[in-house]
Amino acid sequence: MTEKSADEYEAELGASAKGQTQAKEAVGVGVGALSGAGIGAVGGPIGAIVGAVAGGVAGALAALALEASSAGETASEATLDNEIGVEGGDLGTATVAAPPGQRGAFSSAAVGAGTATESEPSEIAEGPIPGAD
In Å, how far are 11, 49, 111 from 116, measured between CA atoms? Predict the structure, then answer.
């Protein structure tokens, strides 16, 4: 069995996404046509036909709007992931433009030394809420 190239994977993924989009549009048209026919049936057979056509068009437009919204959200999430380093593998690291540390020291919690509340008994956040009587 031969390994697929990156271009082959991209082509396969694109074809799969296109098929999913077409399936969603078909469902939108179908649901719109059924609901339009149901509502139009009040006006008789002609009303059901007109309602089915109008409902199908409305369903197709709704499916397209949802797909465009989803594509926009995916693009903005990809941009954000790239900015914060999720995709590049540098999540949480400082950028080149970040100012250097003033003392070169990390926070005590980051190096495992604990926090100030652990060392000062007056600051421990355990026990009953003061003044809750």
Answer: 55, 74, 13
52 within 8 A of 21, measured Cβ to Cβ = no
Taking phi over 0 as left and psi of -120 to 50 as alpha, with beta for the rest, 39 belongs to alpha
Identify whether the C-beta of residue 40 lies closer than 8 Å to the C-beta of residue 57.
no
Least confident of 5-14, 74-83, 116-125: 116-125
pLDDT digits (tens, 9 = 90+) for 61-102: 888 888 888 888 888 888 888 777 777 666 667 677 777 766
- Percentages of the chain per state (helix, strand, coil), in multiples of 5: 65, 0, 35
Torsion (CA) 45, 46, 51, 52 in degrees, nearest 10: 70
Can you give the pTM of this predicted structure?
0.47
